[in-house]
Amino acid sequence: MRPKSVISGLAGARCSLSRKIAPRPLNPLLCATMSGASLSQAGDKKMKTFPFASRLKEGRALALDVWSVFNAANLPPDCINLGQGYMNFPPPPWAREAAEQALRSTEGNHYSPPKGRVRLRNALKEFYSPQFGRELDPETEIVVTSGANEGQYAAWAAFLEQGDEVIIFEPFFDQYLPSIVFNGGKPVYVPLHPSTEATPGTKVGKKTWKVDFDELRRAITPRTKMIVLNTPHNPVGKVFTREELERVAQLAEAHDLIVMSDEVYESLVFDQREHVRFATLPGMWERTITVGSAGKLFAATGWRVGWVVGPPALIGPTLAATTRIVFCTNSPMQEAAAAGLEQAGERGFFETQLREYEERRGVLIDAFERLGMEYAWPEGSYFILLNISRLRWPEEYDFPKSLEGRGKDFRAAWFMANEIGVSSIPVSEFYCEDHVSIGENYARFAFCKDLDTLRRAAERLQRLREFLV
Fold it and tell me: What does DSSP assign to residue 139?
């Protein structure tokens, strides 16, 4: 058994909940400050502290998050990281060359217009106009943002008043929660439900998770301002069907809701499935903010270039907000994104990339099939959920205190990382406290890695059969 992690002593304050599972422990660096104590410095000197804004607590910003717990520094040095969704291969060279050219120029090292560089907005217009079935105006219907996350934050800053409710499907991308709360909104959670239906052609694969539309209807109140969609979905890998999206559209129209459609994994839709752009449904253009990402399109998550597309009534206020949040997005990476979009078609980049991701996906699917462990069939994105409910570890296994009060998936993921040598992310992190029981049977694995890494991980994972019941 491996020694305890360096974070094994970390724990934070608790509060009572209706479920018998404690809230997330606080980040230990903030515990003393939260309690009003002073932080010791050299000698007898003390550092003055100040109360935090309540939004930090309500938005989980003070919590010891999953990324801190499963940080590479806390795991064995030879552990293969399939937890975090970053690539271990570079963006296309012709996109990187555009960034290098911008850095060598004078203009490329200075501010860009707040709405984005003209070249990139024109490239986005040419790329998306056919997909939206309308001629986009790059002056009023497209804004470049500092990553998709900042674009979403700006949209919430633009439209949320204190107490406005925002519906998000669980499991959710973890940045949704703090971004909504920081802007005065109240997240309302509607869980997706795991399917028990078998995926044809597999032994243990299960069909993708489903929406309970009765639950969605009940979640809508007079305070509801917005619904957030994520298709393809992180972490489930679900691609919402046209029928599902049409039913969401009916509710959005009936209750006059704004829809934020997070489509950053748009280029990764497998098995000839249809990626339906929500804004193209009848009557939905006028109420939809579509979110995109150069990082996901071009394997360049560190570029931090995203965009929002929609009607002027939604994009104008979002531009006003993003201008006061970051003013503008970095110039060289905008040039890289523009070059990527301009040349992707003639190079067949997205078609090639999709085939490569399908091969990567196949490595993990095959590994789980050989193990006989159920998994949710990933229809899109680069994530796959493994059902870890059959996994058992020795009763005396020494878990760090930072896992106390967390879902059982945290212990499963910790055990797999330390004893099998493959890290994953516990899915209960992406739920409200009341719904943790839905997610704690699953661990998320990312297949945005090269084939050699995935194959090595697949072989290591076969050792899990020693711990299955």
Answer: T
Dist. CA 367–CA 387, nearest whole Å? 13
Strands 205-206 and 375-376: parallel
pLDDT at 39: 45
Return all residues near 133 (Cβ < 8 A) that are at least 6 apart. Answer: 280
- CA separation for the pair 285, 280 (Å, rounded): 6
pTM: 0.91
188 backbone dihedrals φ, ψ, rounded to 5°: -120, 125
Q: How far is CA 415 from CA 25, 132, 447, in A?
A: 19, 46, 20
Please spell the DSSP secondary structure of 364-424, one letter per residue: HHHHHHHHT--EE---BTTEEEEE-TTB---TT----GGGTTS-HHHHHHHHIIIIISEE-
34-42 long-range contacts (CB < 8 A, ≥24 apart) are 34/62
pLDDT in tens, 307-357: 999 999 999 999 999 999 999 999 999 999 999 999 999 999 999 999 999
The amino acid at 276:
V
Please write the tens of the pLDDT for every residue from 133-188: 999 999 999 999 999 999 999 999 999 999 999 999 999 999 999 999 999 999 99
Distance of CA 17 to the CA centre of its chain: 26
Tokens of 43: 């000698």
Rounded-to-integer distance, Cα 62 and Cα 318, Å? 27
Tell me which residue of 271, 230, 455, 233 sits closest to 358, measured CA to CA. 271
Rounded CA separation 122/52 (Å): 43
- Count Cα atoms within 13 angstroms, Cβ side, for 83: 26
